[in-house]
Q: What sequence folds into this?
């Protein structure tokens, strides 16, 4: 009986398959995890730190300009998260086109830039705009920005979705404190 068992080819034996099962399982699990990681990849790390660093100074000038112009905005997002009303006040050119940026905290692919359409007549205070966009992806918070089309100023803030559908946008708080200390 033992001689007939030894004469079987290797692939008909139990033990080679038992020993290969572990490595085969690990290879299959690794391939599947690669595709899961690729599908849920986040954009938290910048590809070009040097380029981003060069633009920091430019971005701060935009915030400083918003402080000088006393620009404030309020964004009211619809319950369906596919439209918004935007109210902007301060010293800005109402003829200049404005953009609303909805920035996902982790996935750059979900970011949206929407051209605002004026609803109120020119010279109204505050100016009322409306925006229609693709429904927002699920996230606990978003970064919301209103900026002029020429890139002169911007106001932004973090919108925590669970705290309601309204967000007030102001120039960076750090700059407000910096501007106040310069005027004293």
A:
């Amino acid at each position: 009986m033992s001689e007939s068992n030894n004469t079987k080819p290797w692939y008909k034996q139990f033990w080679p398959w038992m020993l290969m099962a572990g490595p085969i399982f690990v290879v299959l699990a690794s391939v599947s995890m690669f595709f899961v990681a690729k599908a849920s990849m986040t954009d938290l790390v910048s590809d070009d730190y040097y380029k981003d660093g060069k633009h920091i100074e430019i971005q701060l000038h935009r915030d400083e300009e918003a402080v000088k112009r006393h620009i404030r905005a309020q964004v009211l997002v619809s319950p369906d998260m596919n439209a918004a009303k935007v109210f902007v006040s301060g010293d800005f050119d109402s003829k200049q086109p404005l953009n609303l940026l909805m920035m996902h905290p982790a996935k750059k692919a979900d970011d949206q830039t929407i051209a605002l359409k004026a609803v109120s007549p020119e010279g109204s205070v505050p100016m009322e705009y409306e925006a229609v966009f693709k429904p927002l992806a699920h996230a606990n918070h978003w970064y919301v920005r209103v900026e002029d089309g020429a890139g002169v100023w911007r106001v932004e803030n973090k919108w925590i979705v669970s705290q309601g559908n309204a967000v007030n946008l102001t120039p960076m708080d750090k700059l407000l404190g910096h501007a106040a200390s310069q005027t004293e």
